[in-house]
User: What shape does this take?
Amino acid sequence: MSGHDHHEHSDIALRVEAVESLLTEKGLIDPATVDEIIRYYEQDIGPLGGAKVVARAWTDPVYKARLLSDPDAAIAEMGLAGPEASHLVVVENLPNVHNVVVCTLCSCYPWAVLGLPPSWYKSPAYRSRIVREPRKLLGEMGLHLTEDVEIRVWDSSAEVRYLVLPERPDGTESMTTEELAGLVTRDAMIGTARVQSAKAP
Assistant: This one.
């Protein structure tokens, strides 16, 4: 992303900090409560919840079929619920098809499945460039796709949100569902990364 975007994000962070400080001074919020809410979204809600969904789909063909045909019900089976976990469409990556998700109008995102959205997901640069030049932008983000791979860009909205079912990496046949879930990243479920066979040290 450009230096302008970085400056814009820094400016927003400073404003948020100033508002939080003011509300704390007036006794309207408790910083510990804010920290707990953030921790809850980062650790308890996601992206581990989504990772468990992906890992189960990789190891259970019947569940995978349900996930692709009736995502809301399949995801609810995993204990994930709420408005952001409904109206989901799951799109599957294949050797010759790669899916990536964006919300061009704002930042619609399946919070209940993936936790807090990354800051870049909400940035104007990502929202415009992933539609205009997806292969180039994904390359800049570290995901290099060959020309024979079709890239499909899915635009989330208030009515429908998307979850990418990444390809299971080679060499993971002996891994448990829990171990597989540990490999799945939020970015892979957005489509800006692939799942690696082992986490980097």
